[in-house]
Design a protein that fits this description.
Elements: H1 2-25, H2 44-65, H3 69-90
Helix pairs in contact: 1-2
Keywords: Membrane, Transmembrane, Transmembrane helix
Length: about 90
Amino acid sequence: MRKILDIFGLFLVLQGVGGIVHHFVGWFRAWGLLARAAFLHGYQLPAGFALIVLGFLVWVLGETLLPTEKERRKKASSKSAVADVLRQEDR
């Protein structure tokens, strides 16, 4: 899930950058979705900045909320170590 959020965040950032470049240069329409959205005509620049911010937010949320497999294993091993120590103290 974390990789999906990373890829989606990168996609949003790239689309935002593409929209901003298209706004200033005008020829970068090939892969930018903002340039093709008719309802955003005249609002490509704010929409581009919004997509960049949204992309970074998605990426940061994925990094902070979802642990990696390595972090999960470490947490599980530390919990089992604590449980072993508690069992030994009860004896």
